[in-house]
Amino acid sequence: MPVITTSPLRSIVLISALSQDAFVDTDNTQLESHTMNIGTGWTTVSHSLGIGATPADTVIVGNQVQIINDGAGIVTNIGVSDATISTDWIPAVGNDNRNSLIFRFANSVNHLTINMREDNGDIRIVKYQSGSSTVLDTAAFSFTEGQNYNIKVVLNGSSITAFVNNVSVLSAVSTFLQTNQLFGVGRNTGSNATRLDNWLVTA
């Protein structure tokens, strides 16, 4: 990893991004038509069982992601299965909000998520396998509506560790879909006013 030394007492480490998106674009641009800062582009998917999704369900508003319908999401191929993936989540005020950081996605019935549930006051690692969901770990977490939260998952082989604002809150071990390379974000239920922002994947 390259290091730039700016003085005898201070160095800056440059982190190489595998995938990155600040979601800067014209309002109502569909994510499938948007060009990422770094990456192969977005695909709209259904990440909830039995719920369909179309490109019109995932758009950019105010340089942030708006997911219009429950069950819709976006994924991108990051080219590796082990990485650190993060995004900012801003739950809407006055609504019950549930959104997910999606990882190792195969299809709507086979993938894993970090599931943030503002209304339940918790965060979970959930495995969806052949239409059945299994909670791999859960922790109480009090989310404040309107506040920005950085949600991050670190994947290393079968090891899964989740963070909120750089504080470790969840961990699990799972070999399910361990080599899959599709990652993204999605909406379970909630408000159209909830936003996602600042997508970043590093090795």
Topology:
Layout lengths: L2 E5 L2 E4 L3 E5 L7 E2 L12 E4 L11 E4 L2 E4 L4 E6 L6 E7 L7 E10 L2 E8 L4 E8 L2 E9 L8 E8 L2 E6 L2 E7 L8 E8 L5 E8 L1
Antiparallel strand pairs: 1-2, 3-18, 4-6, 5-8, 6-7, 8-17, 9-14, 9-18, 10-11, 10-17, 11-12, 12-13, 14-15, 15-16
Overview features:
6-stranded antiparallel beta sheet, mainly beta, Jelly Rolls, 7-stranded antiparallel beta sheet, disordered N terminus, 203 residues, globular
Would you give an account of this structure?
There is one protein chain. Strand 1 (3-7) and strand 2 form a beta hairpin. The protein contains no helices and 18 strands. With 203 residues, it is mainly beta. It has one domain (18-202): Exo-inulinase, domain 1 (Jelly Rolls, Sandwich), CATH 2.60.120. It has a 7-stranded antiparallel beta sheet, with no helix packed on it. The chain is 0% helix and 56% strand.
What fold name stands as the CATH topology?
Answer: Jelly Rolls
Low-confidence region ranges: 1-14
Helix content: under 10%
Please, what is the average pLDDT? 90
The number of strands is 18
Radius of gyration: 16 Å
**What is the beta-strand fraction?**
over 45%
- Spatial sequence of strands, sheet with the most strands: 5-8-17-10-11-12-13
The CATH superfamily name is: Exo-inulinase, domain 1
In short:
The chain has strands at residues 3-7, 10-13, 17-21, 29-30, 43-46, 58-61, 64-67, 72-77, 84-90, 98-107, 110-117, 122-129, 132-140, 149-156, 159-164, 167-173, 182-189, 195-202.
